[in-house]
Specification:
single chain; about 850 residues; alpha/beta; six-stranded parallel β-sheet; 24 strands
């Protein structure tokens, strides 16, 4: 039995039954449903090294796929909140997130006032609250959680005190309100939170006969995983399958990086329905595993689409930026809600089964220490919640920016402006509630009292969305950054308020491409080889560096159309937006306080003039060009920062620094130096990394890379850990999937170094594919048709599978260039520029 179902929060008490537990239960009876997967999405090839079979390439099938027993891992957030009475305490969720008739800054300040009054009363009774009162003096993201923990401890010491319980429930409600966006993605809300108290973990592991340390009496896990994102969850699955005694500590929430709190504006992912899958086994067998994303993609997609539509309708917002994929189509981009649902299903499966696996969210790891026991080195792990456990192996899966976004880059040039409210992370959001309240009050009168400077990651917060919606017509928002987060964030801003204009300040020209790294280096064969072959990893990194940071074709097209309509100005400066290139000052305008920008850099002026001239010639602005100047920058009322993350801050993060100080890991430019296995620290073979924050090859920053690394990492660790029996209680596998053989455990993504090098030389296609295509083109009749066939093949090679929409556009540009709109002309030019840079002669 494991503690779960929001057992930490007041939400669970009012909505999902506080303290409920998830019983270990047998696999659910599977009911057959109508075919839900598009069989044409799959192709199966013969088993040969020149063109290895893949779970992504299978013969056409019409599979009958039973519903997943974990389908209730998420539900419609709208239905969840609409069932809450508006007058109840839990009705605050509805008022803040759905109806929009409650102000989060006001709610926070009310909690602060009530809790301060209550703690003072307890102090007068002689209760020691000296550790709790300071939490209210300087609020941050951890304040409600720490208040709840402190009040919980007081209630255990004095269970009959009538004043402590309501204060504890208030702190729990506050924390649950703050957490809600972390448990939701595009209309889908998780139904369970996974938490194991420190006492329960100690008792449960003892009952399961885990080894204990003679000196401390602490249980010894085979592996502790720090982080519950894609890398952590995927690694936990494979270790659990092998029977390893595994503990996952997540400081925030499972999948938080893909929640509304972490990625609100990213509705459509860069990965497809199959490559977003966390369950990789190197063969079609993953389609027979009951938490594999492609297995239940059609159902997940249908549920996500309905939840998103109902949520947008309820809050009065426009739906935009979602994938057009239908049914179980796996090659099209996945939506964020589908990945979020997938991660929730994996977490539920691990928690409900696998007696020797424990997941504990809201449990930030605070200390990692090396412990010597004879000839064995163990890791001692402690959390803020009081967990203490030893581990034979440690997997760091801590992600990019920290659970509260503390490593996200927020430009000091803007946050230091006197009139600005800087919101870089959750700590700022909570501590500056009074400032936000003043800003909201001014907007009701049509005036901007202060300027916001906020991280793009915070666009999912209701109070910030309401501020953007309330900006007066004619307001301008500056977006700093030129990657997918920045450009999708700009589209989110346009959708929130039809009266605003967005200026995107980017150093590099925008270029279109679907995936975040070249498709050649995200191929499973390349990822597999790059793990252990430094030369192949270096080649992949080099290609990725040339690739830079393109945006998806759909995103770029929408922005160019908005540029034509005058709602967006994309400003390609040729250098970073900073105090060196732009002077920023605060002035008064008819809308209130605004920021005046003066372009100082001559090279930036030249870059902006050249861009404007090129787009005028392409016809983006119609006849006569736009009315505004390319180099006279407009005043900005609100700035949004999407400038990535600070790797230097990441390398100096407290947990990583602890590892460095104990000589457990050595960093090179912020990345850990790995051993010859390409998986573990060069300083300690029992310490591993599976995170986008530690990149040894470009695929480490993408979901497919972390899924493959998890599979290999688990195999690596299992060979070093005590031998365990595979659990009998586990997630169902080897389930039928049409005519695909899912019983096989044969790994198929195992090829030679020569194959991978040839694959990279050939721009991401196999030698066999080239030979087949050349034979096909040799049969083409007529010189013109042959030339077109060659050009089409070149497009297919340079913009493969995932780039379907862009490939169609480039093909149309070949056959009928006069049919292109001005925006499409720019798209074609930029795609060709990207292609020439990536595939320049070596």
């Amino acid at each position: 039995m494991k503690i779960s179902d929001f057992s930490q929060s007041f939400l669970s008490a009012k909505m999902l039954s506080n303290g409920a537990t998830v019983e270990k239960k047998p696999p659910a009876t599977l009911q057959e449903v109508a075919p839900t997967v598009d069989g044409d999405s799959f192709r199966r090839t013969a088993g040969r090294e020149s063109d290895p079979p893949s779970s992504l390439q299978m013969a056409p099938v019409t599979p009958e796929v039973p519903d997943s027993p974990y389908a209730d891992a998420t539900v419609s957030g709208t239905s969840l909140l609409q069932d809450v009475g508006s007058q109840s305490e839990a009705g605050l969720f509805r008022g803040l997130y759905l109806d929009g008739d409650a102000s989060f800054p006001e709610v926070r300040l009310q909690f602060r006032q009530d809790l301060s009054r209550g703690l003072s009363s307890l102090s007068e009774q002689g209760k020691d609250v000296s550790n709790l009162l300071p939490l209210l003096d300087k609020l941050n993201a951890a304040s409600p959680r720490r208040l709840y923990n402190g009040l919980l401890a007081l209630s255990l010491d004095d269970p009959d005190n009538a004043e402590i319980r309501p204060l504890k429930e208030q702190a729990g409600l506050w924390q649950a309100l703050e957490d809600f966006p972390k448990l939701k993605a595009d209309g889908l809300s998780r139904t369970r939170e996974h938490y194991v108290s420190s006492g329960h973990l100690a008792l449960a592991t003892a009952a399961l006969n885990w080894d204990t340390d003679a000196k401390t009496g602490l249980s010894i896990a085979d592996s502790v995983i720090v982080g519950g994102g894609p890398g952590g969850l995927s690694t936990a699955y494979h270790l659990s399958e092998a029977g390893c005694r595994t503990v996952v500590f997540e400081g925030g929430k499972i999948g938080q990086g893909f929640s509304d709190s972490g990625a609100q504006s990213v509705h459509q992912l860069r990965t497809s329905g199959d490559t977003s899958n966390l369950i990789y086994v190197g063969s079609p067998a993953q389609l027979g595993i009951d938490v594999s994303l492609p297995r239940h993609l059609a159902k997940s997609r249908e549920k996500g689409n309905e939840a998103r539509s109902s949520w947008n309708l309820a809050v009065g917002e426009k739906e935009h930026g979602v994938s057009s994929a239908q049914g179980g189509e796996t090659k099209a981009p996945a939506n964020r809600s589908e990945l979020f649902d997938h991660m929730a299903q994996v977490a539920n499966g691990l928690s409900e089964h696998y007696p020797n696996t424990f997941i504990s969210e809201s449990s930030p790891v605070t200390t990692i220490e090396k412990v010597e026991r004879g000839d064995q080195t163990l890791f001692s792990i402690k959390t803020e919640k009081g967990h203490q456990i030893l581990a034979r192996s440690l997997v760091m899966a801590t992600g990019f920016v920290g659970s509260d976004g503390e490593y996200a880059r927020c430009l000091s040039d803007l946050s230091s402006v006197e009139s600005a409210i800087s919101l870089c992370d959750d700590n700022d959001l909570i501590s500056k509630s009074q400032d936000l309240l003043s800003l909201q009050s001014g907007l009701k009168d049509g005036k901007i009292a202060q300027n916001l400077v906020m991280s793009e990651r915070m666009l999912g917060r209701p109070e910030l969305r309401n501020i953007i919606k309330s900006l007066p017509p004619g307001s301008r928002i500056g977006m700093i950054g030129g990657g997918e987060s920045a450009t999708k964030g700009a589209l989110e801003l346009l959708a929130l308020n039809e009266g605003v204009t967005v200026d995107i300040y980017t150093s590099d020209p925008l270029e279109p491409y679907q995936t975040q790294i070249p498709t050649s280096v995200i191929h499973p064969n390349v990822i597999e080889k790059a793990i252990t072959n430094p030369q192949i990893a270096a080649r992949a990194l080099e290609e990725s560096e040339n690739f830079e940071t393109p945006v998806t074709a759909e995103t770029m097209m929408e922005l160019l159309e908005a540029e034509s309509a005058g709602r967006v100005r994309i400003r390609e400066m040729g250098e970073r937006f900073s105090a060196k290139s732009v002077n920023i000052s605060s002035i008064q305008s008819e809308r209130g306080v605004t920021l005046k920008l003066d372009l100082k850099s001559d090279s930036a002026k030249q870059s902006l003039e050249a861009q404007r001239q090129s787009w005028v010639q392409a016809g983006i602005y119609g006849e006569g060009g736009p009315p505004d100047s390319a180099t006279e920058l407009p005043n900005i009322d609100l700035f949004v920062i999407a400038a990535g993350y600070d790797k230097r801050a990441l390398s100096a993060g407290p947990l990583i620094q602890q590892l460095v100080d104990q000589n457990l890991v050595e960093l090179d430019k912020g990345n850990p130096i790995l051993g010859s296995d390409g998986l573990t620290s060069g300083k300690n073979p029992m310490l591993s990394f599976n995170t986008a924050g530690a990149v040894s090859q470009p695929a480490d920053s993408a979901i497919p890379g972390r899924a493959i690394k998890a599979f290999r990492l688990a195999k690596n660790l299992v060979g070093k850990l005590p031998e365990r029996e595979k659990p009998t209680d586990r997630i169902a596998s080897k389930l039928p999937f049409g005519n695909v053989d899912t019983v096989t455990e044969r790994e198929e993504h195992l090829v030679s170094d020569d194959w991978v090098n040839a694959f990279l030389d050939n721009e991401g296609v196999t030698s066999q594919q080239i030979a087949d295509k050349e034979q096909e083109m040799a049969l083409t009749v007529g010189l013109d048709q042959h030339q077109i066939a060659e050009q089409e093949w070149d497009i297919e090679r340079r913009f493969p599978v995932a780039n379907g929409a862009l490939r169609k556009l480039l093909s149309r540009a070949l056959v009928d260039p006069t049919s292109l709109t001005p925006a499409e002309k720019v798209m074609v030019q930029r795609a060709q520029s990207l292609s020439e840079r990536i595939y320049a002669p070596r």
